[in-house]
TrEMBL record:
It comes from the Bacteria. This is Nuclear transport factor 2 family protein. It comes from Aminobacter anthyllidis. Coiled coil: none annotated. It holds the Pfam family DUF4440.
């Protein structure tokens, strides 16, 4: 794929993050496949658009993304209509009224349908010791 196609995927990922900063839930939903998967520290979920809307509304009282920075961005195209982007992200957030800086490794799989790229899978792994030794035991 060309550099411009890679840049389009990077721009879409930035747009999705910006929609979260702006609390633009419908803007985010418009960028998702009808069913998408999310995987992270809380486990995995299969989300339909209404599920995503509910998750976003529920999160509004707990946390707010203030800003983000994507670094070490990698993009690949396993096929003409599938793109995978991976990167590290620094998130400046407010969680339960307190400032939090989170560093994570994220990846998103984008699927092109009818000429439009939509996110089908997003993963987030909080950075740290790969064996979890830097976490407090529950």
């Amino acid at each position: 794929m060309t550099h411009s196609e890679e840049q389009k995927i990077i721009d879409l990922e930035q747009k999705f993050w910006s929609a979260m900063v702006d609390k633009d839930v419908e803007g985010s939903v418009a960028m998702l496949t009808e069913e998408s998967i999310v995987a992270g520290a809380q486990g995995t979920a299969l989300l339909r658009h209404d599920d995503y809307r509910g998750m976003a509304r529920q999160g509004e009282s707990l946390w707010q993304l203030k800003s983000f920075q994507l670094d070490n961005v990698k993009v690949m195209f396993p096929s003409q209509d599938v793109a995978v982007i991976a990167y590290t992200v620094t998130e400046e957030m407010e969680v339960e009224g307190e400032p939090v800086t989170l560093k994570a490794a994220d990846a998103t799989t984008w699927i092109r349908r009818n000429g439009e790229w939509l996110a089908a899978l997003h993963t987030e792994s909080v950075l740290g010791d790969p064996f979890g030794r830097d976490r407090v035991a529950a």
